[in-house]
Amino acid sequence: MTRRHAFIRRLRENKRGVAMLEFALTAPVFLLLLMGIFDYCWQMYAQQVLQGAVSKAGRDSTLEQYSTNQTALDARLRAQVLNVFKDADVTFTRKAYDTFDQVGTEERYTDNKPANGEYDLGECFDDFNGNGRWDPDRGRDSNGTANDVVLYTASMKFKRVLPVWQMLGQPQETTLSSSTVLRNQPFANGTDSPADQCK
Prior knowledge:
There is one protein chain. By secondary structure, the protein is an alpha+beta fold. The chain has one domain (about 20-199). Helix content is about 35%, strand content about 20%. The mean pLDDT is about 80.
């Protein structure tokens, strides 16, 4: 009994290897936290690269020289992003509006079948984007014409470089988007409001 007590006492007083045990317990959490910070910073950097490229392209797109050649503008933006993120998949959307307050608003309609605050099939509506159907966003899928307001959005899909996504059960690919809203220069004649349609 005394030998066993002496052995337990010696074991309890021995401090060798404690640092290694503590490191083994805390290292995985510390490394996961560190990789998470790096991953977040990398995505923040990607967002800033994309935002800078979109802002520059947005300013350029208001000029008349790009009104009929949007692919050239998109190619310039794509090249800027791929210069930093070589394997990114960059896509673009444009929505044109007559005024700034129309951005993201639905097409106007007559609510009378019955009046429920929602568009119902057969109610008359203003087909602002000219696609023949009512839309919750009245924007036209184009760069617009003179004096139009354009919502220009670029999205980039890229693979995350650190394996933290796997440890947190997230997808490896992430998508970031950036938008800018600008008014085209008065380089030509604008468009008139559309006639009412009932469909």
